């Protein structure tokens, strides 16, 4: 049986959705909207003398070159910004994979984001944070100390995961929403999907473990802004916005968030089946 929401045509996508959707053109428009949200929020907070706290993904990543260009062109100071990354791959011994590994999210952020911003504008290193498998309590404690997260950015995985919060049907949605930063096994579906884009299909070389911020940290953000653009996002976005709220598909928990929005490109807007 195919659920009716998978048949919703592109021109009707968003109508009656329980998570607000903004349907755009190509992927560049999705990335531009995410970059603009980052820049506009930082600018507004700087003008008011306030700090900015973001949860940042490595996937999607197309917003970062735009963000970097706008920061450098506008001479936008990041000195009062805190970027808390969502997750990182781990070795089988639950240590961060090496930063030089092409899969490393820490390496990506350093090369593509922090390393491309004028050092005069860049925030101090201690304000560029990754969840630590040896100290998982640090991120939730830091967020509380900073007064909360302004915007959690990200995408949606094949299993409906946000960050690496893989489904756990043994928990109620309320219990799942309270999960905090932790280490866990990456589901087989996620490893297979990620290896296609990241390793040319080399499944045997994909890590089995990860550290991730929790649903508690994501759902606790004042705003959540996501971007989807792949073929398989056609089904994922429909279940997210129209499906039953369930820990079996974590993105559905966004239906209970007061200010969540997903930017959808024309490809992902097409009917799933």
UniProtKB/TrEMBL annotation:
Could you cite one Gene Ontology molecular function of this protein? isomerase activity
Report the protein name in the record: Glucosamine-6-phosphate isomerase/6-phosphogluconolactonase
User: Keywords of this protein's UniProt record, alphabetized?
Assistant: Isomerase
According to the lineage, what is the superkingdom?
A: Bacteria
The cross-references to InterPro entries, in alphabetical order and at most eight, read: GlcN6P_deaminase-like, NagB/RpiA_transferase-like
List each coiled-coil range.
none
Lineage runs:
Bacteria, Bacillati, Actinomycetota, Coriobacteriia, Coriobacteriales
